[in-house]
Each structure stands twice: as structure tokens, then as C-alpha cells.
Amino acid sequence: MTPQADESSPSPATADSAAALAAANINPQSGLATDYLNHFNEAIMLLEMIPDMPDCVEDFLNWRPLTYREHFMASGFKAREQAIEAYENAAPDIRAEFDRLTITMTSILTAVASATKDVHRHETRAALATQAVGWIKPMIMRAGGIINGQGRETDVDYIMNH
Fold first, then answer.
1. CA distance 13 to 63
2. In this structure, what DSSP letter does residue 36 have?
3. What's the gap between Cα 93 and its chain centre?
4. CA angle 139, 145, 146 (to 5 degrees)
5. CA 36 to chain centre
6. How distant, in Å, are the alpha carbons of 9, 47, 54 from that of 122?
7. At the top level of its lineage, which domain of life is listed (predicted)?
8. Is the C or the N end of the chain the one with fewer CB within 10 Å?
9. What is the rounded CA–CA span in Å between residue 141 and residue 117?
10. Residue 75, class by beta-carbon neighbours within 10 Å (0-12 exposed, 13-18 middle, 19+ buried)?
11. Does residue 33 contact residue 149 with C-beta atoms inside 8 Å?
């Protein structure tokens, strides 16, 4: 009788691939890298500075949205091709949830930038910046959860189970 492979164990190629992804700071379960969130964190940092440093509004207005692929193509991320390939091969449901969230963050940031251009009072710009930070920060945390494999549990469930 020939022993059968345990179907729940990863094959050596799968284990090697997972190890290579992990070594490149790409989550092997989700196929996503947290480095992309730096793009949104940059916008948040600029928004957080506006209330105290009004001149930072120009820096925020110069921020441009980038897709996952665009971000990695423009970055110095050592494994950028690997990050793009892993993203493109990510499970469709994980990728769709992640993409919906990042598209929403991009929409909010571009709408805030547009509104910021239309107003000239510092107090109004500061209020817009503060409100946007309040909306985006939880979304960045949620996107981090998706990247790190917590995409199928609510935040409360995750906290209670870990």
C-alpha cells in the first residue's frame, strides 16, 4: 500500500512559495503587502499636519492616488514584481474586499483634496483634514487586517479570539 499525501499539508513548492512571499514582506495567505498602505499613511500624515501647519495643505494637494500596481512600480520595494504577481494571484474575494476598501479611501482623499482646493479659510481646511483622518485611519487598519489574513472576521471577533 502506497502512503497518500495529506491534502492539508502544503506541497514543497507551496511551502517554498509561501516562505519566499513571507521573506519579501508579502503575506502568503492574502498575497498582499502592507507596503501599499504607506501610500495612504503618507496622505494621513499630511492631513494631520494641516491644522498646525497650514502650508502643508500644498503637500497634501500634491499627493496623487496610486493603484496597488502603480505604487509598487514606482517604489523602491525590493520585491515589487513579486508583490504585483502575488496581488494579481490573490484569492478573488480577498482582493475584491481589499480593492473596495482602497478605492473608497482613494475616493475620500480625492474628494477632500477637491474640497480643500475650493475653500481658502484655514479653519475649514483644518476641519476637512481632521474629518478625513477620522474616516481613513480605521479603513487603513481594516486594510491591514485584510492583508494580514483577518479579512473574514469582524474586529470584535478578532480581538476576542486572539
1. 40
2. G
3. 16
4. 90
5. 5
6. 58, 13, 7
7. Bacteria
8. N
9. 27
10. middle
11. no
Grid coordinates in use for 132?
478625513
Give the C-alpha separation, 7 to 23, whole Å.
Answer: 25
Which residues have C-beta within 8 Å of that of residue 131, sequence separation ≥ 6? 112
Per-residue pLDDT of 125-153, as tens digits, reads 999 999 999 999 999 999 999 999 874 54
Q: What is the residue type of 36? A: Y
Cα distance between residue 59 and residue 50, in whole Å: 9
Q: What is the pLDDT of residues 103-115, one digit of tens each?
A: 999 999 999 999 9
Distances (CA, A) of 161 to 29, 127, 148, 155, 156: 19, 37, 15, 10, 9
Q: What 3-state class would DSSP assign to 24?
A: coil
* Cα end-to-end distance, the chain, whole Å: 42
Taking the whole predicted model, whether its pTM rises above 0.85 is answered as no
Query: Do 119 and 128 touch, CB atoms closer than 8 A?
Result: yes
Q: Which three cell numbers stand for residue 87?
A: 496581488
In the chain, where are the structural domains located?
28-161
Classify 152 as helix, strand or coil: coil
pLDDT for position 150: 77
Q: Which among 149, 143, 145 is positioned nearest to 27, based on CA atoms? A: 149
The sign of the CA dihedral 23, 28, 158, 97 is positive
